[in-house]
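hi!! sorry for the late reply, been swamped w classes. u asked for the two structures so here they r. pasted raw, havent cleaned anything up. first the sequence of the first protein and right below it the tokens
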Amino acid sequence: MEIKVIGADKLEKKLKDLASMEKVKNAVRLNGSELQQGAMQYAPVKTGNLKRSIRLQIRDSGMEAAVHPTADYAEYVEFGTRFMEAQPYLLPAFEVQLPIFRADLKRALED
């Protein structure tokens, strides 16, 4: 009697790809969380409402992380107005997190 497995190499590749995708999703989740924390750290605090309003959403089956404030005046603080100077908190957090995310993503895809 002989048993022959056809497509084992394809199965092995698919399993490795799935494991790699899980690592990518973990990197997205981790960096999204760190971005949220960074934005909260940079957010100017008067009442704390803006800081508390910064949310993290994981979308697209874990392939996308969205960090955004829900306070209705958040954009005015980030970009300023003609009466108020900008006090950026999202962009500085993003600039710090971006190279970390790139390194984590590269590491996830190399494993």
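now the second protein. again sequence first, tokens right under
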Amino acid sequence: MIDIALMANDVHVVILAGGSGTRFWPASRRHSPKQLLPLAGRVDEPLIAATVRRVAPIIAPENIWVSTNTILVNATAEVLPQVSRDRFLAEPAARNTAPCIGWATATIARTNPDAIIAVLPADHFVADEPEFRRVMASAVQAAREGWLTTIGIVPTRPETGYGYIEAGAIVAEGVHSATRFIEKPTRERAEALVSGGRHLWNAGMFFYSARVMLAAIKKHLPALAEGLSALDHAASRGDEATTLANVFPSLPAISIDHGVMEKADRIAVVPGSFGWNDVGSWEATWEMAPRDSQGNSLPQNSIAIDATNNLVRDLSNTANGKRWALVGVHDLVVVETDDAVLVIPRERAQDVRAIVDELKSRGETHRL
């Protein structure tokens, strides 16, 4: 059972929703990126909507914030009607997660310097939502005790695409000190980390007191702290928008991991195992999708003859009147939109980015 008292009115959630999701082209585009699409879980629920729904039972609606960029505010607001428009933080430029988290933290701290803040990515999948909320409650409690806290996913395989966190001594029930952060490892190194039993996947979730995080930013990222101070002064004058447009693009482009978490003293990690997936490619969508007895995830009433382990997603306006038929093909991803069709082996799903790069080189920005 979650101690609901942990999720009091001083707990805020900031959802990071500024990514472009290039590995999900042609579905994911600049104006409708990955987090706005139903790529895992419910077929009618965008990833960001699922993220908000997961925390809704324990977070007051007015304490849910969405950090995105200016061109995505309207589209994101459309899929999150329950989030007040004044809780959207629109970044005028992409500057990585430290400026993003810093600005959100400073904004919340203007009314409550001791607010507890949970930062969650918008585009992840969680299978066991009650267990996620239980782990989240432990992270919130650690944040109340002054720790800069993260959730580390108990690894299920030697993954080379994630960073790792080394868990040290137990500092509270279900909470460990975080000894160090490790960059994405080689296959051999990943196997050693997993077999050792002390390393967790870094899922990019952070929990902290606003006061503690702002102090850490001032110590480790002074240039960012100066920019945040300028925004605070502008907000007090009622002129934050103008100052934001001038100041934000000049803030240091650095992740919160590199800028703060790897340098600060009191870092904690809460191990979690709740069916987490970062939904990193079409391969992940296939893995989590309902499939027939031949391993296919296809549009309704499709025909599959001697075809196995394929993923087909028809996102075109003519999808309802179309019949898909697959014969003698295996382990493919096929995605159709109104202006593009992707056909790629599932094992090469990460290479979709190469298509995006090629379109850029050809000047076909209308397809991005």
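hope this helps!! also noticed smth abt the second:
The radius of gyration is 21 Å.
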